[in-house]
Amino acid sequence: MELKEKMDKKLCSDSDNDMGINIIEIKSITVKYGDYEVLHDISFNIKKGEFTSIIGPNGAGKSTILKAIMKNIDLSSGDISIKGKSIKEMSHKQKACIIGFVPQEFSISFDFTVYDIVAMGRNPYLAKLKKSKYDDNKIIEESLKKTNTYEFKDKYFNSLSGGEKQRVIIARALAQQPEILILDEATSSLDIHHQLDILELIHSLNREDGLSVVTIMHDLNLASRFSDKIVLLSKNGIVKQGKPSEVIEENVLKSVYDMDMVVRENKLLSYTEIIPLRIRKSKDNKDTKVHIICGGGTGEYILQKLYSERYKISCGILIEGDSDLDLCKSLNLDFVAENPFSKFSEANIAKNKAFINNSDIIILTDVAVGYGNFDNIKMIENIRDKKIIILHSVNRDFVSGEYEKILEKLVKYDNVKYAMNLKELFNFLSE
C-alpha cells in the first residue's frame, strides 16, 4: 500500500475520543485578496465536541475563516491544524474524511434524487478503481434517517423546499462520517421555523453524536442559545471569544454593531438574549438635554429614538416596575424612581427638579395623570425659560380636572408647543 493511501486510511479512521482537546487550531493566520488584507493575525482554537459560532458584522471575514479551514483559499501567513496535522500537509481527501461542509445554498442543474445527493458524501472513501470497504448503503440510510429525509429519498432534490434541501445537504455531510461539521450561514435563507428546525438538528448531532460544530451565525440570539463558544469578529480582528455569557455583552456588541441593544437573561430557555433597539445615528445632539415626563410605556418609543439620536436624557419621577423605568435602566439614563403606592419624597422631588432645571427641553407624554404622579406636572407649570413640548392627550386627567387646568395654562405661553402626534413632537424638538 502506498504511503499516501496509508495516510488517507489513518486520517479517515482515527477518531480521538478525548473531549476537550483542540480539534482545530487556527494559528496567527493572515489572508489577502490581492493587496487587500481580509484577515490579519487571527488565532483561536476549537475543542472536540464543541459547538462554536462565529459572529460579527458583514465584511469582518467570517466566511474567509471557513474557506481557510476548508483549504479553499491560500493563507498569506500562519497555519491551521486539524487533529494536530497542518492543512498544508493534508490532501482534500483526508480533509473530507474529517470535515463535512454545509454551504448557505446548494444548487445542482441535473435531476439527482435525494439518495444520489447523500451518496456523494461517500466519495472520500472510494479507492481508485476499487469498491468501498465500508457498507456505504447502510451509512447513507443512517444519514437520511438522522436528518428525517429518508421518507423522500427517491424524490428529486430540486423538487424539495429550502428547509428540506438543507437537511439533505446535512445528510450528505453526515455520510462522510465527519468529526467536524462546518456550516456557512446554512440557515440564513430559511424562515424562522426552518432555522430553528435545522439548528435543533445540528445541536442534537453535536450533543448526542459528539460532532464538533463550527458555524457562522447572523442571528445573535440563536448563536447565544445553541453555542458552547462564540468568536466575535470585527474588521479589526477578534474582539472577544468565550462562552456566550462572556461575549454577549451590551458594551461589546454596541461597539461592534454600532447599535443599541438590551442584553438580558432568558429564564425560560436559560440563555443570554439580545433585544436590538436602534442603530445609533450620527446626529450631534450630545449637548442637548431633554427631560421626559412619562410612565406606563408612553415614553418607550420617545426614549429609544432620542437615545439613538444621542440626546442627553433624564426622566422622572417614575414608579418602580414601570416599563419606562425599566428602559431607562437598560439604557443607563438619568432618572428618578419612587416606590409603588408611595407619595413622592422630598428628596426625589428635589432631584427631579434639578434634572428639570438642568434641561434644555421638557417633553410631557400622554401619560395618565393621577394623584400619585401629579407632582410631576406641578413641577413644570411655572417654567417659562425653556421649551416644553406636550403630546396631545385625551381623557388622561384623573385628578378631577386639575391636570387639564394646568394644560390650559401652559399652552398659552410661547415656550410651550402642543404636539398632536409624535411626528409633530419630533419636528418641534428639532426646531
Give an overview in words.
- The chain has 431 residues and is of the alpha/beta class.
- Helix content is 34%, strand content 26%.
- It contains 16 helices and 18 strands.
- A six-stranded mixed sheet has the order 6-7-8-3-9-10, sandwiched between helices.
- α14 links the parallel β16 (361-364) and β17 (387-391).
- The model is unreliable at 1-10 (pLDDT under 50).
Throw out a few tags for this protein.
alpha/beta; 6-stranded mixed β-sheet; 18 strands
**Major sheet size, sense and barrel closure:** 6 strands, mixed
Q: Which class of secondary structure composition applies to the elements?
A: alpha/beta
Count the helices. How many? 16
User: Ranges with pLDDT <50 over ≥5 residues?
Assistant: 1-10
| Percent of sequence in beta strands | 25-35%
Mean pLDDT across the residues is 87
Largest beta sheet: strand ordering = 6-7-8-3-9-10
Q: Radius of gyration, Cα only, in angstroms? A: 30 Å
Helix content: 25-40%
Distance between the termini: 84 Å
Write the layout of secondary structure elements.
Blueprint: H1 3-13, E1 22-33, E2 36-47, E3 51-55, H2 62-69, E4 77-82, E5 85-86, H3 92-98, E6 99-102, H4 114-119, H5 136-146, H6 162-175, E7 180-183, H7 192-209, E8 212-216, H8 220-226, E9 229-234, E10 237-242, H9 244-247, H10 250-257, E11 259-266, E12 271-279, E13 289-293, H11 300-308, E14 312-319, H12 323-330, E15 334-338, H13 346-358, E16 361-364, H14 374-378, E17 387-391, H15 402-410, E18 416-419, H16 422-430
Parallel strand pairs: 3-8, 3-9, 6-7, 7-8, 13-14, 13-16, 14-15, 16-17, 17-18
Antiparallel strand pairs: 1-2, 1-4, 4-5, 9-10, 11-12
